Each structure stands twice: as C-alpha cells, then as structure tokens.
Amino acid sequence: MVADFVSADYGWLHSKDGKESARVVFCPGKNCDGYFDNNDILTQSWKALDILTHDYPDEDHVLVFDNATTHLKRAEDALSARKMPKFTPKVGMNWGIEVTMKRDDGTIVYDDKGKPKKTKIHMRNGKFANATIQEFYYPEGHERAGVFKGMAQILVEQGYTNAPKLRAECAQFRCDPLLEGRCCCQRILFNEPDFAAGLSLLEVMCKEQGFQVIFLPKFHCELNFIEQCWGAAKRAYRLMPASSKEDDLEHNMIASLDAIELITMRRFMDAYHRGLTGKQAAWAGKKYHGHRVLPESLMKDMELDNMLTTKTIIHLHPA
Predict the structure, then answer these.
(1) Does residue 127 sit in helix, strand or coil?
(2) Which residue among 91, 127, 199, 233 is buried most deeply as judged by most CB within 10 Å?
(3) Dist CA 112 CA 151 (whole Å)
(4) What's the fold here for domain 2-72+206-260?
(5) Given CA atoms 90, 95, 98, 103 in this order, what sign does their dihedral have?
(6) What's the mean pLDDT when you consider all of the chain?
(7) What does each C-alpha distance from 164 to 125, 156, 170, 310 come to in angstroms?
(8) On the CB side of 297, how many CA atoms lie within 13 Å of its CA?
(9) CA–CA separation, 300 vs 126, rounded Å?
(10) For residue 177, what are the CA distances in angstroms to 83, 182, 183?
(11) What is the pLDDT of residues 235-272, one digit of tens each?
C-alpha cells in the first residue's frame, strides 16, 4: 500500500533536489506494518509541510484530503455531545471519555488477554458565548468536585433554562427540522460555537504551520483529481509483469506511480475542474493527448463527437 501527496503543479511531492518525499510505502495487516491510522497521517503530513516550507516557501499551499475518518480524527478530549449523559452521574459515579491506556512513551498497555486496556479522561472545557471558559466538571470546593455536570446543567449555565425538560437526544440524532435545533440537549450543544468549531488534529497541525486544509465532501465523486491519479497508477500496475515476490510488487507499484506524467495529471485536474463525467474525461484524455489543459473548444468538440447528452450537466467555472 502507498500514500502520497500530488498536485497539478509539481506532480508527486518531493524536494527540489529529489532526495526527500512524503511518500509512504507499507504492508498493511495485523502481522505486517499494521494499518495507516491518524498518527501515520500526521507524521506523513508533517513531512509534506517540511518539504513545502523548505523548498516552496513563496507559495500559498492548500492541502486537500478525502473525507475519511483517519483524516478527520479529533483530539481524544475534543468536545462532543454524542455520548454525554443528560444529568450529573449518581454519587460514586462519573462520566468521561474512554480511551486506550498508554505509557509515557506512547506505547499501548495490554491486559492479560492481549487486548488494549481502557481508561477514562475528562473532556476539555467549553466556552461561553463571550469566549470565557465553561467548566464541564464541578470545580474544587463543590460537593461533587471533579464530577461531570451533565448536558442539562451545562445548557442551563449557557442560558437554556428549559434544558432539564428537553429529551437527552432524538432517536439516531435525526432531529425534527421544524424545531430549529431546540429539540434535544445534544442538538443544542452540537450547534454551539465551541462544539461546531472543533478542528481535527490534522487541521490543528497544519494551521499552526500556516497551511490551509480542505476536506472533500463526504461520499465525494470517485472521479476527483486524487482518484484519477490513483486510477491511472492502477492501470499502469496491471500492465506490469505478474509476480508474487514482495520486492517485485513494491518496485512495480512505485514504477506505476512514477509513470504518470505531469501533463496527464494536469489534464485530470482540468477535467475535474470542468465537471466532466468519467466517460467524457477518458474521451478528452485521448482526444487532447499532449495538451496541458483542455481547450476552449471542448464543448463544441464534445457535441460534434456526440459526447453530450440531455443528461449531461457541465459546470464551467469562470476564468
């Protein structure tokens, strides 16, 4: 498996001297290199930021990622109302976020059965509308010091005095739109600025380094620029000689990625920008082979070749 960064300006990301890149090659699986998780994403992205900062400092860079859970993961103590109890837990009980227990060096602690041990941590504090801190756990000196307040009490402190009378959550979080977000405690908190403004770990890291991050829409079309590059690499890979040797497989994979020319990537980006379908993009790639971008005569040429139908909608962005 491989993960990399690509742009229509430079192709696969690497330093100008060609000695460094953000490409990661690994063997997925429990008995191999594991799985590409959020920590791996952050490590790889940090390498990409380092290359961009060092070799391309005079340009504004925007990093675009698929809408995947590994990209969207937030901090373990991030604000989330999905599992909050409505009221303060009973005496002797408390509520916190269940996380995997880790040692000081970051390694996971396992039990006698080989399963990761779990522990609970406090959720971070929220903020009132005036940006002052709102503690979600009762402070020192309170008879229930350190205990979670519950959604109802948190909302009462924010001015929602009827919160104790509201339901904790609507079934499957499918709230009645006619109630304008005031149907349940979870929905109200979900819409509060401090909850809504929460950033992923990836966004936080990139923002701190001065880079902008964009996530593609959920279930986004598989014909976007990223997927077209992967698709071209897969096609080249299938043309490689068959082999069961791991070294050959890795060599063929790298060769397939490097076989995609920059001009091809630029045509992919231009086709995506113009909103072409998969069939139309394939037609355009053959029709304008050698062109860096698609010509202004695209629509007329498509019509002449019967590539436009009544079901086709092309959104041409203004120049």
Answers:
(1) strand
(2) 233
(3) 36
(4) Nucleotidyltransferase; domain 5 (3.30.420)
(5) negative
(6) 86
(7) 21, 8, 15, 55
(8) 6
(9) 56
(10) 22, 9, 9
(11) 999 999 998 898 999 999 999 999 999 988 887 787 76
Distance CA 22, CA 284 (A): 31
The answer to whether 53 touches 59, Cβ cutoff 8 Å, is no
Question: Of 203-207, 225-229, 267-271, 296-300, which has the strongest mean pLDDT?
Answer: 203-207
Q: How does 8-38 read in b/e, with b if 16+ C-beta sit within 10 Å?
A: beebbbbeeeeeeebbbeeeeeeeeeeebeb
Contacts 24+ apart (CB under 8 A), 292-299: 292/263, 292/266, 292/267, 293/266, 293/267, 294/267, 294/270, 298/274
Residue 294 clears pLDDT 80, i.e. is over it: no
- pLDDT on residue 266: 85
Task: Give the position of tokens 């709102």.
Answer: 134
Fill in the amino acid letter for 271.
A
What are the extents of the domains in the chain? 2-72+206-260, 97-196, 261-319
187: which 2 tokens? 């929905």
Eight-class DSSP state of 125: P
- The whole model's pTM is what? 0.77
pLDDT of res. 319 = 33
The 10s digit of each residue's pLDDT in 168-200 is 999 989 999 888 889 999 999 999 999 999 999
Q: How far apart are CA 50 and CA 299, in angstroms?
A: 41
Query: Could you tell me how many helices (H) and strands (E) the chain has, helices first?
Result: 11, 10
